[in-house]
Specification:
17 helices; single chain; 345 residues
Length: 345
């Protein structure tokens, strides 16, 4: 009887303790998200191929290959499965390559890719635990370490009338942002939109960035709040600057918007790496906030820093630094924007 009563007693509940999130979409895997990013990057890759031909693919191959090799070596050292099938290393390599100029030295691309994986991701514990965007960590490292090697291709030497005394041509070889910063040169809006200008592989064609970015937002792989915040901040700040210039120096609507003779609001949005950074870099789900409100605040911060760096520093572009700076405050934004449970005051 005692044994029968014991068998009839209800068993204790089995509790499975695991880190969140606990409600998951089985179709939303890391590999699927990375495939979406690769598809979104396709227009940017096509534009880079059109304008920089085989040199673009050389950078793609070097950066992606080095990222995958670094990931495999680090996983083997840590005695963990090699996570290459999730395609995160491929995406990191492509984004890093697209942030470099077409004729960046091979050793710069190799070092930047290795740093992106080792210092940008693995040292924090791997994918999902890194604080900073890995590709931007690698880009910042090579920019600060090899500034001359990366910056030199922005200028073209020609012999001029005296071959013994070559002249540096800073107009035809400079990026739109560099030309604006150093000589006041203005690139036409159509050239900024289509991409037939000099610059990093992924930043020249604003149209390609918009097409790929809209795909990511429609697929919900990227949160629309982040690029909306970036673009809104850039538009508001550049509008304030143009409004002040119009009030003090004069100028019509075309100057305000931007045309072939004046760098206006549209020029600020289409120029440089703002759109590429807004859609493909700042939207990294690991290093950006979790809540919709936090994502919009994050995007606003990135856009504000981009404009401040462009207008107030010696650097012509500020996307990389802006993203890394906002990555550092993402935990605080998450804490500030915790949603209130239903029914609470």
């Amino acid at each position: 009887m005692a044994e029968e009563a014991k068998n009839n007693e209800p068993s204790a509940p089995v509790l499975h303790v695991a880190p969140g999130p606990h409600l998951q979409d089985v179709n939303l895997t890391t590999r699927r998200m990375m495939l979406d990013v690769l598809i979104g990057l396709a227009p940017v890759i096509v534009a880079a191929t059109i304008f920089f031909r085989q040199y673009a693919w050389l950078q793609f191959g070097v950066c992606v290959g080095t990222c995958c090799l670094s990931e495999a070596i680090c996983s083997a050292i840590r005695r963990k499965p090699i996570p290459l099938p999730d395609l995160s290393a491929v995406v990191t390599g492509l984004i890093l390559a697209l942030s470099l100029p077409w004729n960046s030295p091979i050793y710069v691309s190799v070092i930047g890719s290795a740093v992106a994986i080792v210092l940008g991701k693995v040292i924090f514990g791997g994918l999902g635990q890194n604080i900073f965007n890995p590709a931007m960590v690698g880009r910042a490292f090579v920019m600060l370490s090899f500034a001359a090697a990366i910056g030199a291709p922005a200028y073209v030497l020609h012999t001029g009338e005296n071959p013994a005394n070559p002249i540096m041509d800073v107009v035809s070889g400079a990026t739109p942002m560099t030309a604006l910063k150093e000589s006041g040169g203005v690139t036409p809006l159509l050239a900024l939109l289509l991409g037939n200008t000099y610059g990093s592989l992924g930043e020249t064609s604003a149209l390609a960035c918009l097409l790929g970015g809209m795909y990511l937002c429609i697929r919900r792989t990227a949160s629309w709040e982040i690029p909306a915040g970036v673009i809104l901040a850039a538009v508001v700040i550049s509008s304030a600057i143009e409004g002040y210039l119009a009030a003090t120096q004069g100028g019509g609507l075309l100057n305000f918007i931007g045309n072939g003779g004046h760098w206006g609001v549209l020029s600020e949005v289409l120029g440089g790496a703002l759109l590429f950074g807004a859609f493909f870099i700042a939207t990294d789900p690991v290093t950006s906030p979790l809540t919709p409100k936090g994502k919009f605040i994050f995007g606003l911060g990135v856009g504000i820093f981009i404009m401040f760096i462009r207008k107030l520093s010696v650097y012509p572009e500020g996307v990389m630094f802006a993203v890394l700076l906002m990555n550092s405050v993402t935990p605080l934004i998450n804490r500030w924007t915790v949603p209130k449970p239903l029914g609470t005051k």
